[in-house]
Amino acid sequence: QVTLVESGGGSVQTGGSLRLSCVASGRTFSSYAMGWFRQAPGKEREFVAAIRYSGESAYYGDSVKGRFTISRDNAKNTVYLQMNSLKPEDTAVYYCAATISGNYYWTGSYNDWGRGTQVTVSS
User: Fold this and answer.
1) Each residue's pLDDT tens digit, 91-110
2) Helix, strand or coil, per DSSP, at residue 35
């Protein structure tokens, strides 16, 4: 099991940027692929991005491609989500999660979740 703690959320205007961080503790961080998901009020949890164990491959949801970038620093047990050109529809609670499975797009693949960090984008 790995414990995950997100940070970096906040309130920004449309077009602004935020960088989320997720620090992991517990088992070997580099053994896990890491994902970011988000959930807006009244909506299902949505896949945002994922990154493989060594960071050589990344995957993105269609709604964030070209605007968000996921990265990781295994020496710091940290995964990041750089969010640029933010839109009001990006408003949600953002969660990081860890998986040893290969299906990065599915919430059910992830064993461990953080508590989330709120991102609010105003128009």
Assistant:
1) 999 999 999 987 899 999 99
2) strand
